[in-house]
Amino acid sequence: MANTTSGTATFDKTFSIEYKFFRASSDGTSATSNPNGIYGISDILEAHLRSDRTQTTQSDSPMTKVDRSTYGGFSNKLSKGTPNQYFVQRFIDHVSIQIYPTPDSTNASKDMHFYYIKRIQDIGDYTNATDIPFRFVPCMISGLAYYLAQKYQPQMVQVMKLAYEDEFARALAEDGSASSTHITPKAYYPGA
Asked: Are 132 and 140 in contact (CB under 8 A)?
């Protein structure tokens, strides 16, 4: 269904809060300038902010992936600074990355590098695609087989139902948040 690909992207220096990656060039223009035209991204696995990428003194700073509720809790999404967190939102026709804080002018020479899962291109035209996220297509097919078995092959209903529930659970698990979780104990010193 998908394969992992290392993506190195140089964002255009407009310092937007959101960068979009479309599934095909006919859907829109992706937000990278080098390499130009990254299409078919399904999810971002991890990201780094690289400074001085053309120098021998380059260094990477890891960025933390946050989930929807954490990103929604940021009070000022347009605050400027060095980006250290990102939120990935997956749609049917594109994936968008919101970075926080928004890069300021001191980050003009820095690039965001990331690893992503790239969707394998469909055989037909993208206009033939179903109006659901591709990760739910096996679930939709299993569900259709289950409902057809109820009418035409009643002896297969249990088997089809198990396959349907398994595919549905797999699609829901893939759609969940893979954000980083850090637990830090609170240091409490009474009387100090």
From this structure: yes
* Amino acid 121: pLDDT: 61
Gap between the Cα atoms of 10 and 111, Å rounded: 5
Nearest to 156 by CA among 147, 165, 169: 147
> 31 and 58 in one domain?
yes
What would the pLDDT profile of 50-92 be if each residue is shown by its tens digit? 887 777 888 888 999 998 888 889 888 888 888 889 998 888 7
167 to 9, 67, 122, 173, 181: CA distances (angstroms): 33, 24, 20, 10, 27
Exposed/middle/buried for 7, CB within 10 Å: 0-12, 13-18, 19+?
Answer: buried
Can you give the residue range of the structural domain that contains 170? 131-174
Beta bridge partners of 46: 115
**What is the C-alpha radius of gyration for the chain, rounded to an integer number of angstroms?**
21
Residue 163 and residue 112 in one domain: no
**What average pLDDT does range 36-43 have in this prediction?**
73
For residues 46 and 32, what is the distance between their CA atoms, to the nearest angstrom? 17
